[in-house]
Design a protein that fits this description.
8-stranded mixed beta sheet; alpha/beta; 20 helices; 3 domains; Rossmann fold; globular; 4-stranded antiparallel beta sheet
Length: 485
């Protein structure tokens, strides 16, 4: 009886929890059980979990074609064992095919499906032959099996050649393993080429971006063996080419922190002095603050300001307090639902980085594509409008509110903005062009980044970052001003 490696066992357990809808892969991959694995096992477990979630739709399609009854409904344990094996066979070049198949079979047995494990064995062996016709395989297993060695880095196996692009949104959805309804919407809103770029971005490991507290930190990281490249947009950002940033003293002491470059840009747009008046905000509301990365940037850019950081989850509030402990003298972490804020005309600036569908973050949060339903979007939008109304009410006349989402969906972006302007006669939208120029003038934004970002402004002056245009998550950002009475 073959043993199951710690990495595959951990991946199986995490995928089962995600399948049940009880947890998020990101949280589970940072849990104690995973951190206790060796670095090699931890890396493989992460690659397996994220790879299976990214390619699940296509894997299921390929697997069901090999079943005797293609429309059969499989038990979750069997389905996940099959997905794990199939992902390794099709996408990991240095994994022996024997290990991918045998350990998937053993996972099915250990989950109590000894009889069905035979089917797992047969299907995965068929898939292995189909993906490499020159390979010799004993259909019953054993001596005639010639394992292939695959890389443990995920590949874009089975993707179409660049000179044979998909001709429809449905074809693109299957090729890039996204829900058809989602890709059809993106193709309709942004065009098929943009939809293709969004999908391909969602199938790749996100760029690891870090924010440097000072220029001296970069030299310290390089000395520690971290290979860095400049960011695309912000001068304080570096991307990690290689090295374990989490093991460095600078990271452990909080002098460098990981945060998507697009997320950092949102906070920079909120906190900058856009009219060059040098009248920095003295009071700031971060309406939906956790996990606190944007709050830290607001605090750094506005050292004289009092900041109220709200979070509706007690657990996330504790984490927020820990992260903002260095600014406790002027940042109040408050347990509060942003829709129920009672302040009126109190703040100079409010950031409403609202909860959303997260369709701009599918590379980072691949299970969103499996959980999100079209009918969820109106419910999200209703809450987003309520948060935006509360944020606008909380700022003084002449104060500003920056609204942002990591969604690509009009219901959560343009339609929320249109509803806000129709419902609030004292609100007006302001183009973000001046803020981009201010960030460039202050040396916060790179010149190439500023030039490219200007092309991402909508006719109304909102900023839309589509995944694939930059190596960032997708964001939508709009600036409001409360009219003076």
């Amino acid at each position: 009886m073959p043993a199951v490696s710690p990495s595959r066992k951990a991946a199986f357990q995490i995928l089962m929890a995600v399948e049940r809808g009880t947890s998020h892969s990101d949280d589970l991959l940072r849990a104690k059980a995973v951190n206790a694995l060796s670095p090699a096992d931890r890396n493989l477990a992460t690659a397996l979990v994220l790879g299976v979630l990214r390619w699940q739709i296509r894997l299921d399609h390929q697997l069901h074609l090999l079943l005797k009854r293609p429309n059969a409904k499989l038990d979750p344990e069997i389905l996940i064992a099959l997905r794990l094996g199939a992902f390794q066979l099709l996408h990991l070049d240095r994994i022996p095919a024997r290990a991918a198949i045998d350990e998937s079979v053993e996972l099915a047995k250990q989950a109590g499906h000894r009889f069905a494990s035979r089917m797992v064995n047969a299907v995965l062996r068929k898939l292995s032959v189909a993906s490499n016709p020159t390979e010799k395989i004993d259909p019953e297993g054993g001596g005639g099996f010639n394992p292939r060695i695959r890389s443990t880095e995920p590949t874009r196996a089975l993707a179409p050649e660049e000179n044979h692009p998909e001709e429809s949104a449905a074809e693109l959805a299957l090729t890039e393993s996204h829900p058809t309804w989602m890709v059809e919407r993106w193709a309709g809103f942004y065009g098929l080429d943009a939809a293709r770029a969004i999908c391909r971005h969602g199938q790749t490991q996100p760029v690891l971006s870090v924010r440097l507290a000072s220029p001296d930190v970069e030299a310290e990281l390089i000395e520690a063996g971290i290979v860095l490249e400049a960011g695309e947009l912000l001068t304080a950002v570096r991307t990690i080419v290689s090295g374990d940033i989490a093991a460095t003293l600078a990271f452990l002491e909080g002098r460098v922190r990981m945060q998507d470059e697009g997320s950092q840009l949102v906070a920079e747009l909120a906190g900058c002095d856009c009219d060059h008046s040098n009248q920095k905000a003295k009071s700031i509301l971060d309406a939906c603050a956790a996990p606190g990365g944007k709050t830290l940037i607001l605090a750094e850019r506005n050292p004289q300001a009092r900041i109220v950081a709200c979070e509706s989850s007690a657990q996330r509030l504790d984490q927020l307090r820990q992260r903002l402990a260095g600014h406790a003298d002027r940042v109040e972490c408050r347990l509060a639902d942003a829709t129920a804020l009672t302040e009126d005309s109190v703040f100079d600036l409010a950031l409403a980085d609202v909860p959303c569908s997260g369709t701009g973050t599918l590379g980072r949060n691949p299970e969103i594509r499996h959980r999100l339903r079209l009918e969820d979007l109106p419910r999200q939008a209703e809450r987003q409008r309520a948060i935006l109304h509360a944020a606008l009410r909380s700022v003084r006349p002449g104060g500003r509110v920056l609204y942002s989402t990591c969604s690509l969906e009009p219901e959560e972006n343009q339609q929320v903005i249109a509803a806000m302007l129709a419902e609030a006669p004292d609100a007006r939208a302001i183009s973000l062009a001046s803020r981009l120029e201010a960030l460039l003038a202050e040396g916060i934004l790179t010149k190439p980044g500023a030039e490219r970002l200007h092309h991402c402004l909508t006719p109304e002056g909102a900023l839309r970052l589509l995944p694939g245009v930059f190596a960032t998550d997708g964001f939508f950002v709009c600036l409001f001003e409360r009219a003076a009475r």
